[in-house]
Input
Amino acid sequence: MAIHIDPDKCNGCGLCIPACPFGLIEVVADKAQVGEGCTLCGAYQEACEYDAIIIEVEEKAAPSDRFRGVWVFAEQRDGQLKSAAYELLAKGRELANTLGTELCAVCFGHDVAGLEELIHYGADKVYLADDPVFADCQEDLYAGRLASLISEHEPEILLAPATSLGRSFIPRVAAILETGLTADCTALEIDEKSRLLLQTRPTFGGNIMATITCQTRRPQMATVRPHVFRKGVPDEKRRGEIIRVDFDREAVTSRTKLLHFVADLSERVKLEDADVIVAGGRGLGEAENFQLLAELADVLGAALASSRPPVDDGWIPYPHQIGQTGKTVCPKLYIACGISGAAQHLAGMQTSDVIVAINEDANAPIFEVATYGIVGDLFQVVPLLTGKLRDARL
Amino acid sequence: MNVVVCIKQVPGTTEVEIDPKTNTLIREGVKSILNPFDVYALEEGVRIKEQHGGKVTAISMGPPQAEEALREAIAAGADEAILLSDGAFAGSDTLATSFVLAKACTKIADYDLIICGRQTIDGDTGQVGPELAENLGIPFVAYVSKIEEIKDGRMRVRRMIEEGYEVIEMSLPGVITVVKEINVPRLPSLRGMAKARSAQIPIWTAQGLGVPMEKVGLLGSPTRVIGIFRPQRTRRGELLQGSLEQQVEELVDKLRQAKTV
Output
């Protein structure tokens, strides 16, 4: 594949410059030049009135049909499967059904509880590598073993959670297998004609969505942030197979060693699991004012969260941050106080069931995603709300 | 300790618009900047050099104008900078980019540590760091919030995870990606800025790096962007009316009806 600009036809008019979605075209010495990062999207080809832009598409033949099956990496911690595993299984089941193929879960750990649940939630097979060395998340070992399992069984799709573990070791698996990986997908669909996985993800901090395919290499790999997809309804009658796979300890050594773990205890309620979240933004003005939100959170039994500015200013620790570079949550109720709603923040909470926005600025983008909005001073509204809810409880 | 810091030049804003006629991004008037997360990577590299000696080399794969970002890196304390630039790199995705960076690190040869920012603000993937480590066959730790100790070819770091942080020991050479909690970057010094202006920044091309064409650019990139669009905000929000008191009352009623409280 290549892009050519025909020097005889190009007159350096520059029409193609604004047409490039990535701003990669320059006119040098009266001829257009394409810089790095071109995805061959063809947008500027259409803009050229002189047919000077030629895109040669000579993709290698589609990968062999032997790649079949959808795989989900089921992450565990301390022997407990993470909820992201079930969410990915729900989506994976859907994709596998469309493709008419099997859905397999892969789990690495030691004495992991509830593996049959992976089957109840949709897996046909569970590949399990159980070894005491896997009790801690050992990325060197994980990357090597997952890559070798994939090479052996040749699935066409692998879905993994975009957790700190997944975002760290899944790219290494992609590099070993020399295949494509799309991070933080928010929509996954099959193009039935080509069997290709259409992977849609936010980019530019959530301001733009891009749809990405991996055409010639397999598996097609994607990570998905927790809580982006919903888990399905378990079916305890579903039958499947748990297949133990070996792990050759002699063959690999880990070059990193976990010395110890320090838990963050500042959260009273775990954000990711909270049904109700009260979040504050720049509008709070100063660290002390989080106390106002803490009182509201208390009444609701809610977890306390934040947009990025309060974290940047040190009002509240990073684990409370929701958004593109923080956590993704999907509670039943999300109350945003003094949060304007930058795309980066919305990316982390817009799938919540009910969103309440309290902000002084009626034009704040948070109101575009809010179920209910109150335009007003949060320092008046929040205490009123806390009071009303407290009265309602009594 | 010789440190290589990988940086990227990115658009200065993420507030980009799509032209409704061409369905492409409008880029005019958008200034390029050094990826904000890379500033922390550079600062950490400079701090390591100050403590342990050695040098900091900034590298970037990009078009010729990415040289500006490398000059910023020198102003921020890097000793030298190398631009990896070639028409053949055009269209590289994270896998192809990490392959070029790995080739450059191999050519630099005497490095002990490679530092990247956690992710860029344009692509947001965070994949280049781990893919680079794998291509080089060296250990990797993501989301480092503190380097606790570097001693005898080993490094002890804090790595942020959802539940708190882990203390991990890794052997060197290795690759880490850093989060902004790791340091507070200093402002560029006058001396640094003067040095940045006059610095010679060599350009390494595909040939100079010895990268086979099928490993870079479009041929070396498994992924393709097939379309872009503006996210739909489909929720039809309801702005409550009346006095604040009435609004709060109505809100509580609605939430109770919906059984959310």
Remarks:
- Chain B touches chain A through 97 residues (CB under 8 Å).
